[in-house]
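Please check this.
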Amino acid sequence: MSICGLNNAKHKGILDDMIEKGILSLEKEPWGNKVILKYKISEKGIRIMKEVLDPYEELFPREDKK
């Protein structure tokens, strides 16, 4: 989330909900006296994304930026 500039306090509930639904997975990595949380998209999340985005891309294709 820090890479994207998102506020952890505001968006943690959304991420927790997505983990509960199986769309994301969470990996905790120790880093000194802190823990880094790494969120990754799951196979279910990839499948849902393709089911939603592929038809959207077909309806509204991206324009080539030249």
Summary: The longest strand covers residues 24-31. Strands lie at 24-31, 34-41.
